[in-house]
Amino acid sequence: MDKKEIYEHLAKIYLDASSKRKKKSKSYPKLFQYLFFASIAFVAALAVVLNANLHKNKSLNSELALILQPDAVKINFHFDPAKKEAYSMNLNSLDLTRYKALGFTLRKVNYKDSISLRVEFTSAFKEKSEVYFRDIPHRWKDFKINLADFKNISDWSNMSILSFIVEEWNAKEKRDVVYIDNVRLVR
Questions:
Q1: Cα–Cα distance, 126 to 118 (Å, whole number)
Q2: pTM (2 decimals)?
Q3: Are the beta carbons of 79 and 149 closer than 8 angstroms?
């Protein structure tokens, strides 16, 4: 082989090798480009789905409320000498005109007992009105009552007391415990 043949042979090997590299390097950027756009599309679709679910759940489960008692309250009654047991909250002349309902969570301890609970508002003008909740459940249950159901209160702008009362004639058993939690005023 002479120099010219060697040169042509080496040039052919070099040119074939360089053209293969160019073909490989051209195919990788397209693959990365497709993966990049596919990942952007996936993330955008995921964000849309999560955002839609977030707004759907938010609108169903949200309420604007003033929490009066965030912790559970225990009314432990024993009707031997007593005729009623009560838990009262001082509202300090609170203006309730902008609120529509009273909400709270309630349960009893003894599942066999049948208990009714009296919920009573008292205004600063000594107006009293009550609503009874019959058959308190053994498991936690959320209750809401419209403030309009407290018929004897004419002015909600100056409220003084909110009471939860268990009376002897409204309980089957003489001993039991009633828990009240998450007492709130709902707009």
A1: 17
A2: 0.61
A3: no
